[in-house]
Specification:
Helix content: 25-40%
Radius of gyration: 39 Å
Number of helices: 12
Structural class: alpha+beta
Strand order of the largest sheet: 13-22-21-20-16-19
Number of strands: 22
Length: about 500
Amino acid sequence: MAASLRLGRQGILFGLRLSNFNKCLWTTHPWQEQVRHFFQSPWYLGVSALKVQMPALSPTMEEGNIVKWLKKEGEAVAAGDALCEIETDKAVVTMESNDDGVLAKILMEEGSRNVRLGTLIALMVEEGQDWKQVEIPPPDAAAPSAAPPATHAAAAPVVPPAAPSPPPLPKPATSGPLRLSPAARHILDTHGVDPKLATPTGPRGLITKEDALNLLKTSPALKATPAMAAPPAPSPVPTLAATPPPPGSRPNIPPLSVPGKPGAPGTFTEIPASNVRRVIAQRLTQSKTTIPHAYASVDCDMAAVMQLRSDLAKEQIKVSVNDFIIKAAAVALKEMPEVNVTWSGDGPRALDSVHISIAVATDKGLITPIIKDAANKGVQEISANAKALAQKARDGKLLPEEYQGGSFSISNLGMFGISGFSAVINPPQACILAVGTSRAELRLCEDAQSLRTQQLMTVTLSSDGRLVDDELASRFLDKFRSNLEQPQRMALA
């Protein structure tokens, strides 16, 4: 028993001495600690990155363009800071950061176009990490923009396969006088086929229509042979070095269009379509192919509105005719909620509020900012909102909530001298009002004894026939005209 205790105590002392010996070894060899730190350091493995991807900044956005980076590589970024400006399908929107850190690497430079949603555009690292050692992920092989790697075999000349030899022509089946039906003669003459090659199956050796068709089926080379001589094969590479026609003559064939040479006859210049233009094209095509458009027009007497504008101008209140039009349409929608609807996949949806979309022309295309709750606003407030939204639209600074939605659209081309036109409905809305310019016309008075001059303005309502039928559209236009010809109604409605 005493011997066992003695051995156990000696084992414990030996273990303590061995641990002290190991500590001395590590302290006397600091390079081992450095090696261990090297393999565990981010400098060797790369700093893990926070991915910044192309976001969806509008409901219809599928890709965007990088307009400008507002942060530089190595610059600190806080959550909510503006990272870059992105051109969506509607406007130029500022993208904000969702994390705190340092912008380490910009993967999509300024001017990058058609960047798909979810594409990696930049990398960030956490604060305190070396942003220069950020680990750049490998390019995604499944990305649509990734091109297959070039190989040496691709540089070798490609020898086209030899064209298959045409099948041998059938021998003449008849040697006596030919008898052809009119249909068979027409078919064989059109394709330039010798009638002697056909096998007659009709009575007394008559070549029928079926015999001619069978001959064409069994001899594809004959089917492709026209009756006239084949034109010479065109040159593989078209050039513009051909001799120009004499002056005053008109060529029989249109000149070949070649890009990149402006000024030459028959040339063109390719213009890349912006995201806004592409979305406009998609929406217009969707509208005209899926919405049954119905049209109704009415003339409105603008004398009362012109007089009211003149009276307000004396009090330094400046409003436009378009402001009265917006107010009149909003009040008419409030009086007729059955027109204030949109179409969804399940059917019509009645809207609780009246939001008027006004069409504004910009350099990049047409956009429709929204005047919200227009029925409950005065004409002066509508005027201020319309001016502010139109300026933001031209500057490309509209927020998504300022152009998304809307229950009714107005497009006014009166300032361009357009007397009347029909507009395309902006889905999923049910109507759009096209407004022309006002004009002076002489008309008979109610007593039919005298003439008076009227300031008439033609408006055309384009309506979705599934939601607003002709009778409903007519009643809406009647209320709209009453609101303009009697502006006091808009204050009482």
